[in-house]
Description:
Elements: H1 2-16, E1 28-33, H2 37-47, E2 53-56, H3 72-77, H4 79-98, H5 113-137, E3 141-143, E4 146-151, E5 154-158, E6 164-174, E7 178-180, E8 193-194, H6 195-198, E9 208-211, H7 215-226, E10 231-235, H8 245-258, E11 261-264, E12 266-273, E13 279-285, E14 291-296, E15 298-301, E16 305-307, E17 341-343, H9 355-370, E18 384-386, E19 392-396, H10 399-406, E20 411-417, H11 421-425, E21 434-440, E22 447-453, H12 457-469, H13 474-478, H14 489-492
Amino acid sequence: xxxxxxxxxxxxxxxxxxxxxxxxxxxxxxxxxxGGSGGLACSKEAAQYDKKVAVLDxxxxxxxxxxxxxxxxxxxxxxxxxxxxxxGALLGNAIKDAKNYGWDISLPVHHDWSVMANAIQDHVKxxxxxxxxxxxxxxxxxxxxxxxxxxxxxxxxxxxKGEKTRLTAENIxxxxxxxxxxxxxxxxxxxxxxxxxxxxxxxxxGKTLVIGASYVALECAGFLTGIGLDTSLMVRSxxxxxxxxxxxxLVTDYMMSYGTRIFWKCTPVKIEKLNSGKLQVxxxxxxxxxxxxxxxxxxxxxxxxTPVTQDLCLDKAGVQINPETRKVIVGANEETxxxxxxAIGDIAEGRPELTPPAIKAGKMLAHRLYGKSAQLMDYDNVxxxxxxxxxxxxxxxxxxxxxxxxxxxxxEIYHAYYKPLELTVAQRDVTQCYVKMICLHEDDQRILGLxxxxxxAGEVIQGFALGIKCNATYSQxxxxxxxxxxxxxxxxxxxITKRSGLDATVTSC
Length: 509
């Protein structure tokens, strides 16, 4: 019934387009291209100022034909299904741990992909519907159109049936996000899937090779391993580029002990479909220069993402992009090279590819446009978490970046290896549970960055992010009494520096 109502509303919205009268010079005060987190936040906030607002959202099917609804990457093929599948994998491990806590559970346990997938996909569809309802409630026009620029104020929208409509707006916001990148020089690359497809599979992917070392690659390989699938990861150079590399390697060390095979310093050469239906992958070891091969049920590409700028005809509006990254060049106020055209989220150059900054940037942009605000989005010290089997949360500078900016002698690093209490009775390997705090080596020792690997890392880092945003110092942090027994308290107990060379292993309360 909900799906039928959703279709009916969408159809009615398409038929009504152009029927409403003009408001002044243009059809709309604000036109947003992209119905993801940032675009929806901006449009709904602008509508609060009694402005006439429209959102164009059109999902191009993946090369495998996968489609989804309103809400963008995060809702449909990113944060939400990823976290739920990650949680599903953690539950499997919790069942195994439960025996040591006295629970009478028959092992081994078995996982049903279709049950998990259907439940998650139903939840995602409910979120799609929720976004439609919110837009309707706030009187934001939803248009299931693919939009391209005709000129600086005009967008041509095209429906799935090829019907075209021209729309004009005083201000335009680009929030079209990005899509997974596919290799163009590897024969058989089209036989692989991407994360866009993985979260909408109805059947288990089976034995899987994930190619890439991004957080998407590690997270997907992690939960696939966690639900019991034979999973391998192929890494060409370094894991989690842009993150602290000591932390990144602790993450991959744990993944290997967890059961994920990692092919280091390897790059795919070709993929072939065998008569059995399996995919044979041929790859080269870059260190030995030897070719190897193995067959898999599924090959998933996770080699990065590309901004959706190529088909927007930005040149007709004079919007400049970075030719290397294809992202839209923006100023501190999200303005592009055209004064009334803005860009937020993953499509914008130099912005973190994260949902919360896009949402906040979208809301703040609406306030500047219509609410007489002058406040700019602050992109410094944005916290994030990689939801690998052992989670990695961080905020602020990596060790490498801190040393680059301030010099090695000006940086003090406090660190500790610790044991989460709940994992001791379960007899889990906790070798990689680690916390590192990077400070300026001065009297006040202002905290430059905090990195945490362990259970619930995102929940831990979120609270400390406020302190770091407020320029907290090491002395302030350690003077704060921790909650015992928790993993988070290990941050407040940090007292060993790397410079000292002392053993950083926590041995007792």
